[in-house]
Each structure stands twice: as C-alpha cells, then as structure tokens.
Recover the amino acids of this structure.
C-alpha cells in the first residue's frame, strides 16, 4: 500500500505499486492513494478556534501517526 499526502497545490506524486508473488495460489491486493488534506476536517478544526497552521499540523501529524502505527514495534 502506498499513501501520499500532498501539502501544496503544486505538489505531485508518481507511484507504481508492485507485487512479488512466489506461489500460484496466493491471493493479494495492492493500492495507492494520493490526496490533499480534507478541507472538511480542516474546517471542523478551524470552527473550534484552532488556528489554520495548527489545524494543518494536527492533520499532518495524524496522517504520519497512521503510517507509523502500521510499522509496529521495530525494536530500534
């Protein structure tokens, strides 16, 4: 799975998901998503009195936290 967050109106992302399958009877899936911050989520935070910069930071942090949660404990 490949997820990308575009943080400016001029940002672009090129992705090519790939699979390596070593057995003929394996079922698997792949996907890729690319997008900008959800303006409804940003509006919600702003309507609660959170400044735009802080609201944007909260949404970006939530995106990153979701990615890091998928890694589990790396024992680093």
């Amino acid at each position: 799975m490949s997820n990308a967050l575009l943080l400016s109106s001029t940002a672009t992302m090129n992705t090519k998901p790939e699979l390596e399958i070593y057995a003929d009877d394996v079922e698997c899936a792949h996907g890729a998503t690319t997008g900008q911050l959800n303006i409804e989520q940003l509006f919600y935070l702003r309507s609660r009195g959170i400044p735009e910069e802080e609201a944007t930071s909260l949404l970006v942090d939530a995106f990153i936290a979701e990615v890091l949660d998928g890694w589990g404990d790396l024992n680093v």
About this structure: The chain has a mean pLDDT of 81. The beta strands are 2-6, 32-36. Helices lie at 39-47, 52-71.
